[in-house]
Amino acid sequence: MDTNAVLDIGLQGLWVSAKLAAPVLITALAVGFGISLLQSITQIQEVTLSFVPKAAAVGVVLLISGHWMISEMVSFTHALFDKIPSLLEGG
Q1: How many CA atoms lie within 13 A of 40 on its CB side?
Q2: Where in the chain are the domains?
Q3: Which residues cross the membrane (predicted)?
Q4: In angstroms, what CA-CA distances link 84 with 25, 42, 80?
Q5: Whose CB among 11, 36, 61, 65 lies 3.0–4.6 Å from 27's, allowing a Cys bridge?
Q6: pTM value?
Q7: H-assigned helices in 1-91
């Protein structure tokens, strides 16, 4: 196995992890920004007010996009297992 193959697998892994984390992180960012804006307008400074809506929104996003996330991970894992013979004969 050469360094190009290792770098390619690492890059694919980073890309898949970024794709899988994006819906959750973007949702948490958007809800957190909205709650912060609401808190600054109303001047209510309660810590739990920002945590509970973010947790609920992330839970909803995981319910909605969970099937897609699992299928992406399964296809990535299958692609890695399919590459094993070509990686072993290259060495």
Answers
A1: 6
A2: 3-89
A3: 20-39, 51-70
A4: 32, 58, 7
A5: 61
A6: 0.81
A7: 3-42, 47-89
Amino acid at 12: Q
At which residue do the structure tokens 């804006």 appear? 37
The CA distance from 50 to 64, in Å, is: 22
User: pLDDT, tens digit, for every residue of 32-62?
Assistant: 999 999 988 988 888 778 889 999 999 999 9
Q: Which residues contact 57 (CB under 8 A, 6 or more apart)?
A: 27, 28, 31
Which residue reads 């509970």 in tokens?
A: 52
CA angle 28, 43, 59 (to 5 degrees): 20
**Count of beta carbons in the 10 Å neighbourhood of residue 38:** 13
